[in-house]
User: What shape does this take?
Amino acid sequence: MKKDAKTFHEVAERCTRFSPIEECKNCGCSNSTSSGENVSCKSCRHYEPDKVCTLDLYKEIVTNHNL
Assistant: This one.
């Protein structure tokens, strides 16, 4: 499964639980992908390097959107 910068960006744009680290204090997850180029799994509060997504959404989004 691809885990590069482009795929992280594309997955984050499609993720309904994307929550930017800098904006999320009490997990008011908003899918705020309007913030532009900083939208990435790596800038989401649900990102962990060893697992990628603590909500297990990465693989599902990659598969469902043929990324």
